Amino acid sequence: MSEKLYYLRQYVKGSALEAISGFFYGNTEEAYQRAWQTLDQRFGHPFVIQQAYRTKLDKWPKIPPRDPVAFQRFTDFLKSCLDATPYVTGLSILNDCIENQRLLQKLPDWCTNRWNRTVTEQMDQGYNYPSFQGFVNFLQKEARVINNPICSLQSIKNSDPTHQPTRANMSRRGNRDKGTTLASITRSEERRVGK
Predict the structure, then answer these.
(1) What is the pTM of this model?
(2) Can you give the pLDDT of all 195 residues of the chain as single tens digits?
(3) How far apart are CA 185 and CA 195, in angstroms?
(4) Do the beta carbons of residue 114 and residue 126 sit within 8 Å?
(5) Using an 8 Å Cβ cutoff, are 5 and 32 in contact?
């Protein structure tokens, strides 16, 4: 039993850890079960879970236009919201078009324009505004496109030798050039001194 409590302690943080810390002194199945009951009562209520998802969505920063990693992270989080919807019914509000507008404010303009085209085409065909699932499916496809390891814009730029280096590459190159220059100066001084 101590193994279960040990792992529970490893994966719980903050106020959740504080709420169950007394149970770690017990080494029984009962202590383990009571710890889980406490967590479920305090943090497992669907409303609490819904609020945690909504708060995280509200605080999510706007995704920069050329940041495929940030785009993928946001898409993954929206997929987790979608996956939780059958169990946390309050998340069904994400199907609302006004909620969709709030999510669109987090996306780069290029993506918002593509989504607008998709929605307009669907509505022109007589369909309702797409569901949250439709939105997540759209974002997953866009994430696959911009993160494609072979032909995405980012991968092409990284493989192009004439491409302008990023600041990080420039600073690495600058440090490497400084080291080369310093080594050259040191060798020429050694020759002059006759070492």
Answers:
(1) 0.66
(2) 578 878 888 888 888 889 888 988 887 888 888 888 888 888 877 788 889 999 999 999 999 999 999 999 999 999 999 999 998 889 999 999 999 999 999 999 999 999 999 999 999 999 999 999 999 999 999 999 998 876 656 655 665 566 565 555 454 445 444 444 444 444 444 555 454
(3) 14
(4) no
(5) yes
Cβ-in-10-Å burial (0-12, 13-18, 19+) of 90 comes to: middle
Alpha carbon distance 63, 66 (integer Å): 8
Where helices occur in the chain by DSSP H, the ranges are 2-11, 14-20, 29-43, 46-59, 68-84, 97-104, 109-124, 132-146, 153-159, 167-193
CA dist 3 → 7, 13, 25, 37, 190 (Å): 6, 18, 13, 18, 64
Matching residue, tokens 């987790």: 80
Long-range contacts, stretch 91-97, CB < 8 angstroms, 24+ apart: 91/50, 91/53, 91/54, 92/132, 94/132, 95/131, 95/132, 97/129
- 146: tokens are 């911009």
Say how far apart CA 14 and CA 173 lie, in whole Å.
42
> Which of 141, 149, 134 has its CA nearest to residue 100?
134
